[in-house]
Design brief:
The chain has 226 residues and is of the alpha+beta class. The chain is 38% helix and 23% strand.
């Protein structure tokens, strides 16, 4: 099609050159036509996404959560579990993608996770996740915010409620009124605390057994104390 247009334009230009006054105009028409044809024939190259997680981008102020005066972070929307940071996935364990099946009650199917992602957002330092959690007491909407450093969770906050979409997540987190975030210990710290509590429990058991042994050793055959 472009070649046909160029041929027609060339014939028009040759005819116009017979008139000295319009020779320059004919040449200009020819050049313009060629430029249009080249522009029409050039394939359109789609722009590549800036970030694999980028379904939407927004600045979210976390001051209401972190209690810092300035805490603006550029967040990218996340709609798939596989795009969450590995440290956050370690905290959650298994979690289903949006609209995918999960265990909503305490009648547990071992092949399904206990949580389902609703919407999430990731920045360089933070990750916000709104999700549903099943079990005996079903939680339809809950939000956790993770502060990340060196590939691990440094601090964590949790609140009932959250966002149903990216815009809603930004509004609810920034409001400081809808959500009531409470700090919680990251999973690794909880595991360490449980391990220490287990050690203390074993030590108490050993001391109790030793006390009973000493007590029995101090008794006479008739049961009286020596």
């Amino acid at each position: 099609m472009g070649i046909v247009i160029m041929a027609v334009a060339y014939r028009v230009a040759v005819g116009l050159r017979n008139w000295r006054r319009v020779g320059t105009a004919a040449t200009a028409i020819l050049l313009i036509t060629v430029g249009i044809c080249l522009g029409c024939s050039a394939p359109e190259v789609p722009s590549a996404p800036k970030n694999l997680t980028e379904e939407g981008t927004a600045i979210i102020n976390l001051s209401a959560v972190t209690n810092s005066s300035q805490n603006n972070e550029v967040f990218h929307e996340v709609r798939h579990v596989r795009w969450l940071p590995s440290a956050v996935l370690d905290e959650f364990g298994e979690i289903a993608d949006p609209r995918q099946p999960f265990n909503t009650t305490d009648a547990v199917d071992p092949g399904l996770p206990m949580r389902q992602l609703i919407v999430a957002a990731v920045s360089e330092k933070y990750c916000i996740v709104s999700y549903s959690e099943g079990g005996m007491f079903f939680i339809p909407l809950q939000t956790r915010i993770f502060e990340l450093t060196a590939g691990r969770v440094k601090r964590e906050w949790v609140s009932v409620g959250g966002g149903l979409n990216f815009r809603d997540l930004k509004a609810t987190v920034e409001s400081g009124r809808i959500l009531r975030f409470e700090p919680v210990a990251p999973y690794a710290e909880q595991q360490q605390l449980r391990a220490e509590e287990t050690k203390l429990s074993h030590l108490r058991d050993q001391l109790d057994r030793r006390d009973k042994t000493l007590e029995n050793a101090g008794r006479k055959p008739d049961g009286s104390v020596r």
